[in-house]
User: Which sequence fits this backbone?
């Protein structure tokens, strides 16, 4: 009999992540695994959600809870309630959650409370900063999970330090979880969609850009968007870098950042940034476009976890606009630098990476087929 899993998606990055496993199921495991997709509705704008289903060929969700935005508690509570009733009627063998968003924690909590095994993909990552909502979500989710799939050896070490065993035998249960270090499904996706992007994306032409003539930047972390001083420091640094190097700055903008820019940036900086033809502030980009922008950028400046790694996959240096990262390997290997929201650190990090030429790219994130490994283990262990 086929095993049934329910996949929870909600925020942009997990919609993207889910495509690797949906693709593996439909091409290799269709006879053994059935996937039911639930969208919590955490992200709802066309360019934050629907575009990814369309262009990445992800099956349309079987359910959409349409929870929308809200405070963390209210948003998560609505999700838990909706998910529980779907789980009770669908009776899956497992609930698969991705990453560290409010949709992740809601899926894990709703499932474990009614004794459905939780499968956590992207387990074990830690920033050691519990003021980030994502850090709380990931720790709690890992400790509710029955199967934990970690993308990196750092993730495996973190889990072992928290008491998980990495080679447990026997049946996996919530009290006897199994941990697998399997590589990163986003590496699977980047390899797969890189080719599709090369043939389909026209973003460079549309923006009038040539390869290596621009910086790609994204800013959406609440600590960078909701604290006016941090936002000012970041934009001021980007403006100075642009001015100094002549590189353009391409900024696909999260709705939250867009609404806060006008409200919070000093009038002078807002004016400079919004009227400069070298600052290309564009709507959030689809995955094919963002890959094309990443592959052709001179350097990437971001607070996104996903973009940090994709910078590495596409051999681009990266200035990280955060005080710490879960993806420590790329910093330890000299491919990225942590600059927080400090203008001085951003400028210094940029200068260092802009001048550097001796980058190396070891295989830190697996072999590009983490999704098949995960499907095998779900079939074996649940
Ligand atoms: C969420 C995740 C974050 C992830 C990010 C990716 C949590 C705690 N955070 O952050 O880890 O990196 O998604 O994008 O789950 N908004 C819109 N349209 C939308 C969605 C959001 O306008 O489609 C605006 C709303 O004003 C909303 C704000 O963005 O209040 C923040 O959205 P939310 O989903 O709460 O968190 P993100 O910052 O997107």
Assistant:
């Amino acid at each position: 009999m086929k095993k049934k899993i329910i996949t929870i998606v909600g925020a942009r990055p997990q919609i993207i992540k889910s495509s690797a496993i949906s693709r593996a199921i439909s091409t290799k495991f269709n006879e053994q695994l059935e996937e039911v997709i639930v969208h919590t509705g955490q992200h709802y704008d066309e360019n934050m959600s629907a575009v990814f289903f369309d262009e990445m060929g992800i099956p349309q969700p079987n359910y959409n809870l349409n929870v929308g935005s809200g405070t963390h508690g209210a948003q998560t509570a609505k999700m838990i309630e909706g998910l529980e009733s779907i789980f009770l009627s669908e009776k899956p063998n497992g609930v698969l959650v991705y990453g560290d968003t409010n949709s992740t924690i809601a899926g894990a909590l709703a499932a474990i409370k009614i004794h459905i095994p939780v499968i956590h993909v992207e387990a074990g990552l830690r920033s050691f900063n519990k003021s980030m909502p994502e850090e709380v979500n990931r720790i709690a989710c890992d400790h509710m999970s029955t199967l934990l799939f970690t993308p990196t050896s750092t993730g495996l070490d973190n889990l072992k330090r928290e008491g998980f065993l990495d080679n447990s035998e026997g049946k996996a249960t919530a009290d006897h979880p199994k941990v697998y270090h399997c590589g990163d499904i986003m590496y699977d996706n980047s390899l797969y969609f890189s080719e599709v992007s090369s043939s389909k994306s026209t973003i460079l032409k549309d923006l009038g850009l040539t390869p290596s003539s621009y910086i790609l930047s994204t800013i959406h972390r609440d600590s960078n968007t909701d604290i006016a001083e941090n936002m000012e420091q970041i934009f001021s640094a980007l403006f100075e870098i642009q001015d100094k190097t002549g590189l353009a700055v391409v900024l696909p903008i999260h709705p939250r950042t867009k609404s806060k820019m006008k409200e919070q940036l000093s009038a002078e900086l807002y004016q400079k940034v919004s009227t400069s033809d070298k600052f290309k502030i564009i709507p959030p980009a689809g995955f094919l476009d963002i890959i094309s922008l990443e592959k052709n950028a001179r350097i990437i400046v971001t607070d996104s976890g996903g973009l940090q790694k994709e910078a590495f996959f596409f051999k681009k240096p990266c200035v990280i606009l955060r005080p710490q990262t879960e993806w420590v390997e790329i910093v330890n290997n000299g491919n990225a630098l942590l600059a927080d929201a400090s203008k001085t650190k951003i400028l210094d990090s940029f200068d260092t990476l802009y001048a550097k030429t001796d980058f190396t790219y070891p295989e830190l994130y697996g072999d590009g087929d983490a999704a098949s490994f995960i499907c095998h283990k779900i079939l074996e262990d649940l």
User: Anything to note?
Assistant: The chain has a mean pLDDT of 96.
